[in-house]
Each structure stands twice: as structure tokens, then as C-alpha cells.
Design goal:
Helix content is 28%, strand content 23%. By secondary structure, it is α/β, with parallel strands linked by helices. The chain has two domains: 3-127 and 319-333, 3-Layer(aba) Sandwich (Rossmann fold); 131-314, Dihydrodipicolinate Reductase, domain 2, CATH 3.30.360.10. The strands form three sheets. A six-stranded parallel beta sheet has the order 5-2-1-6-7-8, sandwiched between helices. A six-stranded mixed beta sheet has the order 10-9-11-14-13-12. A two-stranded antiparallel sheet has the order 3-4. Strand 13 (292-300) and strand 14 (306-313) form a beta hairpin. It is globular.
Length: 354
Amino acid sequence: MALRVAVLGATGNVGREMMNILDERKFPADSVAAIASRRSKGAEVSYGDKILKCEDVEQTDWSQFDLCLMSAGGSVAKEWAPKIAKAGCLVIDNSSHYRMDPDVPLIVPEVNPDAVDGYDKKNIIANPNCSTAQLVVALKPLHDAAGIERVVVSTYQSVSGSGKDAMDELWNQTKGIFVNDAPEPQVYTKQIAFNVIPHIDVFMDDGFTKEEWKMASETKKILDPDIQLTATCARVPTFVGHAEAVNIETADPLSADKARAILKEADGIVVVDNREDGGYITPIECVGEWATFISRIREDVTVDNGLAFWCVSDNLRKGAALNAVQIAELCVERGILKPDSLLKSPTFDKGSPA
């Protein structure tokens, strides 16, 4: 198989992780190109044992690619995704820009693979928010078994979700505190080192942040529009790995033992749930791993048919880069991406509106 793949946003945390995962999973690419903005032209990124120099997005002939994995932010996606898609190159976008577009499928392969067939309306597929991706992987098998009606989730999200500058800020503040010279916050509204900030993304009129809105809206689109979800999203001083404390209410009774057994058999999930000291997974232990880890499964007796659990995943992988590559793999399996030819579909061609 010989697909021609471009990674747009290749110099960022997620873009570099996309490169790593394409290589690790032996994605059937004949060639991989690193694409970035003009100011990053010539910057070097690694792909397996190769070093690639970044090419300028504005000088790229997109008709020469079958697939573009995009992780360059919403404004870049808004400008470039339609142009790239119109050139016949399938776009899998990691930004929030297209997630709620009714003509763009929002995909987590373990949860709603059939929805990928809607790609041909715009030739764009959206990758969900990092905190949503791991959550719906955990919810899906439980929803199938007992019908989830309500979810209450509190997130503990690492600084890598805000990018490299945020990781540098945590590092510099942590070092500075020990010598009484901590730098002032630049990325965050308050000190992140040795602290927790209950604020991710902008505030909305109802008092929730956009990150919290994303979790509710994306879960409905991916899993079930009837699920009610409320979230509180917090930034914590860890570098990689998002954790979530999740409470669910189901239509039908579901014991902790039954839920544990269901989750153990589910795709993309590893259950580590020993009721003893250390019998659970923490963010630092999930770094570099593929799975969504579930621990602390227990019945919530304060509501009818209630369950609680702890959910941890590498946000740069399952929350972003890995999920995007898994979507690409799904497209190969379904014949949407075909080797040795540019993507074409019965309802999409270069002349159709994107």
C-alpha cells in the first residue's frame, strides 16, 4: 500500500506525536511530509529513523497527497481544511473548528466508526477534544449495556493540552519556586506550579467554560444526543496525561462487578482496579500508552443506578494524535483511503463545494 500523507502542524506537540504514531503503528504510507507555517519552513522533525524538513503550507501542492492529518489550530483549519479537501486530499482535523459541523463526522473509532461514512460531504473528519475522547471510550460499553442517562465529570488536565509554552511555564515556575524567583504566569491566568486552576478555555454566559461545553456537546454528537452531561474542567501541574473522575446514572441497574467485566472486554480500555494501595493508574503511568485506563470502579449509592470510576489517558495520544491515526486506519479499512490513488468518492470531487 502506498498512501501519501502530510502532517500539517508538524512542529507542535501533537504534530510530532502524529509522526511518531504513524511510524509506530506502521501506517501504510509511501511518503510522509511535514508541513508547517512559513516561519517554520526548514524546521526538522523526526519520522521513525528519518529527519524531515518542514515544508511551507502555502507552497504545498495538496493534490499530491491522499491524507492530511491537521493539528494547527482552529484558524488554520478554517482557512486551509476546505482548500486541502477540495484538492482531493482527505483531512482529519484535530482542532475544534469542525467538530460541531453537521456535515463533518466527529469520530472515535472504538465508539462510532460507522459515522465515518459521512466524510464525503466535505472530505473532512473531525477529531474530538482530548478530554472527550477518553471519556466516550469509557462510556460507550456501559451505555450499550445499561443506557447512560446522566454524566457528571471532573477533569484533571495536564499542561500539554495547552501546548509547548504551557509545558515550559510549568517547568520554569517549578524551578523558580525553589529559588524564590518564580516567573509570572504568561500562558495561564494564575500560577500553575503546585496549584490547580479551575478554568480551561473561555468562559461562556452560563458560567461554564468552553472546554466544559465541548465535553457535553461532543459526547452527545459522538455517543447519544439524549445523554445529559455536566463537567468541571481543571488544569493541574502535570506535563502529560489527563485524568477524569466520572459519575454516571444508568436507565438499567449495573453493578460495579458487571461494569468491571464489561470494561475489561471493551476495545481501547485497560482496567486496573485493585482495591488496595496503588491499585489504580495515575497520569504519569499512562504516558506513551495507547489505552484508556479505568480504575476505582464502584457503585454510587446516592442515586438510583449510579456508578463512579476514574479514567486516565495520554492526552497527546488517545486525546489527539493516536485517535487521528486510528481514524485514518479506519478509512483504509473501509476503502475510503485507497493506495496509489488520490482520494475520490461518488459524491465528492475537486470541483464540488467544500
